[in-house]
Design brief:
- Two copies of one chain form a homodimer.
- Chain A is α/β, with parallel strands linked by helices.
- The first copy, chain A, folds into three domains: 70 residues, Winged helix-like DNA-binding domain superfamily/Winged helix DNA-binding domain (Arc Repressor Mutant, subunit A, Orthogonal Bundle); 134 residues, Nucleotidyltransferase, domain 5, CATH 3.30.420.40; 168 residues, Nucleotidyltransferase, domain 5 (2-Layer Sandwich).
- In chain A, 41% of the residues lie in helices and 19% in strands.
- In chain A, the strands form four sheets. Chain A has a five-stranded mixed β-sheet. Chain A has a five-stranded mixed β-sheet with strand order 13-12-11-14-15, sandwiched between helices.
- The longest helix of chain A is centred in the C-terminal third of the chain and has 25 residues.
- In chain A, 52% of the residues are buried.
- The interface between A and B is large, with 88 and 89 residues.
Chain lengths: 405, 405
């Protein structure tokens, strides 16, 4: 098999040190406690280089000595673990009915997970960003009060995000052309760290790849649910973004032209069949008796309760929803051959009843043998997109750049 | 926007030299004639490094001095161009009705393009590989007779290719589990260069990215036609392969559940609507009067002739085919946000009549604004997959490794 190579980049000794710093840091993250000799043996770097890099990483408080020695043949060795305690990053998530903040340290330990109910769709984007700024300030305050320095933050939005961090379209929020990154940076008065914006689907996929049950696999898709359905695609270990950063729009995949009408004007799009409003409409025909549903979470809880009590109508409706989800996943599988498709949000909440039918449909519909080895699973992460946002904000440090002090 | 990084790799001075060799080689390929000073200025490498690398590249006959000097302020400079004349690579392509061989030199100049009519579907895979070996030997003979050294070869197959170069499934050829790479290597008696196998869709996408009208863009899809439809996906400058190398199976994308039956058992798959047999069946209802069509190329020529004479039935049938193609491209566009989708084979032959309708449908069906900027165009390359195979076989030299002498 052949790879097309990206443009080769000129390399100098500074780049080499950055790259090797990243190698050592990654080795410690994955294999701690480990000794300098372990690092040299496992990475192929020579011992003098490893010693020099470790000394610098200790000075920077990215790595620390535990003083422990492992039982081993030969001389006892000083063991190293990731420190990174002085460094943190934030992930924010704008949902239709809540704002979420997560902070983690460099070791991936959660420092806080805050959810604030907020009816985003009933107020202007400006008001939402004002609330988000307030939440962000409080989170920064909490993190810095413990002596940590924030290295960056990333906001997840359920919609399209352009390379400048603006949101041309977020149907689930009713947003068009909102310059999220620029407004948040201004509101935080240029905070001295990077402020990024990305789609919740991309950030959730990043969180899965780093912290989820399938952490470390190189080809996966995360499907976000709720009012709309989105895909975050990791291919060969990298987020697939496309030419303008809009990749992952799976919500209007045509599944059943005879299906219910979609907000987009077509019929039977994936969102119109398996999005949370469609599921509520199918399983709880009485839900709209008193007018349109505004808050879907109580309805989702009702569906879960009925499914737990083996309500036959709800069970058969969930199986039908699962089959439609499986048809969408089969298209993803044939096109992208992921090792895993991980579903979040209401798909995860309903997974025990959705996934058996979805997996059968995937096996029947995918055209690559054995669905290309693709596993279809529910996410086990809490606030995946916000966690992914915080993870993304640590990328420069993990790539070997020295942290903001 | 944030990238997930692949695993950082340890770097040493040898790697640095390889990487910088690739940088210089690429600069000369894209900007020749250029001077050593130009290279230093444009790549950021220092002049001593550039001089040392250029000296080595000249010794290796990868670069040569032209002796020309450009008009410029200051001292005249010796100009450099890509040499690479001593180095060649081969691409082979196994089609349902032909075998193709292409050879290029390192500069991308075609040394030969051979097509041999061969009814692959009527003989065993072993017989086909025997014919392919004979064709390959003759091509190697032709190339080496001119004093060139073959650096590698890559075979394109219209089907699934696994990482070992075996073909688990190629519907268009009627193949299952054929170890193409192993058999060809054995038949060529371990030729001392790399023998690779890839899908024709992947290789055609690589050819487009390097030699096509959209050369250099980082996100594109090439759709291959003929008996089946396949997608080669380039994302962020790299071929997207997926976990087992099976990505790009677009032939059974469900487009119209009320459409004609597909060989897979479903109805209205993309192949069943816009594959060459479906197009012939739709536009030339008399074609099957004397039994099943075996050779589709004369039928394709008849369709082109009728379209040129404005036959109303053929024109409306092509417009309908174009709309169905456009629906498939809209799915690709929403999911992958490519900058261009380039269609080859019978889609390219019929492009003047297919693409206007396909573009309208794409604009109407894609959900990202302006179809995410995606252009839908016909390939202008001859024997794209074989050309891509030869290009792929030069990848190691282009990545800065020294050539096989």
């Amino acid at each position: 098999m052949i790879s097309i190579h990206n443009e080769p980049q000129p390399t100098d000794l500074g780049d080499v040190r950055v790259a090797n710093r990243a190698v050592v840091l990654r080795h410690v993250r994955l294999h701690a406690p480990c000794s300098r000799a372990d690092i040299a043996a496992r990475t192929g770097l020579n011992k003098a280089t490893v010693s020099s890099l470790v000394a610098e990483l200790i000075t920077q408080r990215l790595v620390r000595e535990t003083g422990l020695t492992e039982n081993r043949v030969g001389r006892p060795a000083t063991m190293l673990v990731l420190d990174g305690e002085p460094y943190a990053a934030l992930g924010l998530q704008i949902g239709a009915d809540e704002l979420v903040a997560v902070a983690i340290d460099l070791g991936g330990n959660r420092l806080l997970t805050w959810r604030r109910a907020f009816a985003t769709t009933t107020v202007s984007p400006t008001e939402t960003l004002r609330a988000l700024t307030a939440l962000t300030r409080r989170a920064i305050g909490r993190v810095t009060a413990t002596g940590r320095t924030v290295q960056g933050l990333t906001v997840g939005v359920p919609g399209l995000v352009d390379p400048a961090g603006a949101v041309p379209l977020a149907t689930a929020l009713g947003w068009r052309d909102v310059p999220v990154a620029a407004e948040l940076r201004a509101a935080l008065r240029d905070p001295g760290f990077a402020v990024g914006v990305d789609s919740v689907a991309n950030l959730a996929a990043l969180a899965e790849q780093r912290h989820g049950a399938y952490a470390g696999i190189t080809d996966l898709v995360h499907l976000t649910g709720g009012l709309t359905v989105g895909a975050g695609i990791v291919a060969a270990g990298r987020l697939l973004r496309g030419g303008r950063g809009f990749a992952g729009e799976i919500g209007h995949l045509p599944i059943d032209p005879a299906g219910p009408p979609c907000a987009c004007g077509a019929r039977g799009c994936l969102t119109a069949l398996v999005g949370l409003p469609a599921v509520v409409r199918r399983l709880l025909p009485d839900a709209e008796a008193d007018g349109p549903v505004v808050d879907y979470l109580p309805e989702l809880a009702r569906i879960v309760a009925l499914a737990r009590h083996d309500d036959p109508t709800v069970l058969s409706g969930l199986a039908e929803t699962g089959r439609q989800l499986g048809r969408g996943v089969a298209v993803l599988t044939d096109l992208l051959n992921p090792e895993a498709v991980v579903v979040g949000d209401h798909f995860a909440a309903l997974a025990p009843w959705l996934l058996p039918a979805a997996r059968s449909e995937l096996a029947a519909r995918a055209h690559v043998p054995g669905a290309g080895g693709c596993r279809l699973e529910a996410s086990t992460l809490d606030a995946a997109a916000a966690l992914g946002g915080a993870t993304a904000a640590l990328a420069t440090v993990e790539a070997g750049r020295l942290p903001v002090r």
